[in-house]
Design goal:
The protein has helices at about 1-25, 30-35, 40-45, 50-75, 80-90, 90-95, 100-120, 140-165, 170-185, 205. The chain is mainly alpha-helical.
């Protein structure tokens, strides 16, 4: 029973990565995630107490997926060869899984909530609900999520650094190009359908050969 619940939880997280990648935290209805995952909304909220918790889980999974793909791409390599192999594998993360766009949405959520916290300082009512169970009225909640995102970024940086042995300047360039690729993908007019088999990086790591 516990294994079955974990399987359903993983399915929901993969679906959340794909949906949040398109609409972000506040633009994605949980109904769309439940539909993609093949579960009811009440069951979704049995697995995750709120939309924010699901968004956080999707964020962590997107960074974990990126680390898995890069580590596999760099297997048996080092130095520039490893860094180039990881850069070439980036296309996998830009595919139907939405992994890079999910990471971009996570950073945007941190930036938006930081701006809203500044605007609402000193207001009588304080910040209100941001919709669809994603309230950030508690400034501590936003700070906690920002801490999660920073930790995820630090972990991914360590993976690329350790696999390649690249100096900081090369790592800066690697992640700058990655961010540019994610922004370009987010601005594309085409709306690529996402295959359930690719939701949230179930398959991207296995698409890399070698």
């Amino acid at each position: 029973m516990r294994a079955r619940t974990q399987e359903r939880r993983d399915t929901v997280v993969r679906a959340a990565v794909a949906e949040f990648a398109k609409g972000g935290l506040h633009g994605t209805p949980t109904a769309a995630i439940a539909l993609r995952a093949g579960v009811s909304q009440p069951y979704l909220f049995r697995l995750f107490p709120g939309k924010r918790e699901l968004f956080t889980a999707a964020t962590v999974r997107a960074f974990e997926c990126s680390a898995e793909v890069y580590a596999r791409a760099a297997r048996g390599l080092s130095g520039t060869a490893a860094l180039e192999a990881m850069a070439l594998s980036r296309g996998v993360l830009l595919g139907g899984s939405g992994v890079l766009l999910m990471r971009l949405q996570a950073v945007m959520a941190v930036a938006i909530e930081g701006s809203e916290a500044v605007r609402t300082l000193g207001s009588v009512g304080g910040p209100g609900s941001l919709g669809d169970s994603a309230s950030s009225g508690d400034s501590g909640t936003g700070a906690a999520f920002a801490s999660v995102v920073r930790g995820c970024w630090a972990g991914l940086w360590d993976v690329v650094r350790d696999r390649s042995g690249a100096p900081p300047s090369a790592l800066d360039a690697f992640f700058a190009n990655e961010s540019l690729a994610a922004v370009r993908a987010s601005l594309e007019a085409r709306d690529h359908p996402v295959d359930h088999a690719q939701d949230g990086c179930r398959d991207p790591a296995t698409q890399l050969k070698g």
